[in-house]
Amino acid sequence: MNGTIFDIKEMAVHDGPGIRTTIFFKGCPLRCIWCHNPEGLSAKPQLMYKHNNCKNCGKCKQKCNHPDCQPFDRCLHICPENCLTVTGREVTAKDLASEIIPSAQVLGDGFGGFTFSGGEPLMQSEFLLELIEELKGFHLCIETSGYASSETFKKVIEKLDLVIMDIKLADNELHKKYTGVSNTQILENFEILKNSGKPYIIRTPLISAITDTKENLLAIEKIIGNSTWEKLPENEVAGAKYKMLEMEFPLEKEKAKRN
Predict the structure, then answer these.
(1) What CA–CA distance (Å, rounded) separates 42 from 59?
(2) Residue 27 neighbours by CB distance under 10 Å
(3) Which helix (H) or strand (E) holds 48?
(4) What are phi and psi of 52, to 5 degrees?
(5) 219 pLDDT tier (thresholds 50, 70, 90)
(6) Structural contact between residues 6 and 15, judged by C-beta atoms closer than 8 angstroms
(7) Contact 125, 133 (CB under 8 A)
(8) From edge to edge, which strands make up the β-sheet containing 19-25?
(9) Residue 30 has pLDDT above 90, yes or no
(10) Integer Cα distance of 233 and 21 in angstroms
(11) Domain 2-45+89-99+114-258 has CATH 3.30.43.10
């Protein structure tokens, strides 16, 4: 079956042990107001604009019959400044594996493995499971919000070597306010993970006055106990991606309310 990805990052060193290749799945059920990969939110391919390079020539507004251009009702290839790019492409698990395995083989014993990130890989669980089968023999890791049915969560993690899972906010109402979803299913899946015997790491993004509060961090610590816990700094440059997608950056709006 086909899946939709928006990026492949080789030589990644922060997405699990060793030097890895990270595959970014497109589509996410959460809407975290601080999301630093907004191109991973929608499950569909999207246009990104490099506004700083645009000369306002209007050439891109021409109709084009090329298959790449028809979904966007404009010509993607005519821009003299290369301002337009499409983020997101469909690919089969077999073709994707054929694309990413050769560079891993070049590194030999120095290759750490493959990491599935996003977006939320569990949104495309059937495609993910097919890809896992194609990558058997390599160390496999997922970066996930944990927001999926328990059945899907169990089915996927049993095939993996490492799970990196976010717990962003302990309070359910705050979680709904800042991510758009309840954390009930996430915490249920954390209990499944904790009891699975699988190696795992918990991560919390430290977002000023939202997730980095003393109350939240103490509450998360109470939930996860002595689990390995990584606290990640806020991404200060995420706003540029929102501009390229012509989307509002919700965290900027939230910060403006406080001033």
Answers:
(1) 27
(2) 21
(3) strand 46-49
(4) -65, -25
(5) very high
(6) no
(7) no
(8) 89-92, 2-12, 19-25, 111-118, 140-144, 162-166, 200-206, 229-233
(9) yes
(10) 22
(11) no
Task: List pLDDT tens digits, range 68-117.
Answer: 888 888 888 888 888 888 999 999 999 999 999 999 999 999 999 999 99
**For residue 137, what pLDDT band results from cuts at 50, 70 and 90?**
very high
Neighbours of 38 (CB within 10 A): 24
Q: What is the mean pLDDT of the chain?
A: 95
- According to DSSP, the residues that pair with 142 across neighbouring strands are 116, 163
How is the chain split into domains, by residue range?
Answer: 2-45+89-99+114-258, 47-87
Poorest-pLDDT segment among 80-94, 121-135, 153-167: 80-94
Where do the H-state alpha helices sit in the chain?
Answer: 93-107, 125-134, 150-157, 172-179, 184-194, 214-224, 239-244, 250-258
Calculate helix-pair angle for 214-224, 184-194, nearest 10 degrees. Answer: 40
Q: Is 96 helix (H, G, I), strand (E, B) or coil?
A: helix
| Residue-wise pLDDT tens digits, 9-18 | 999 999 999 9
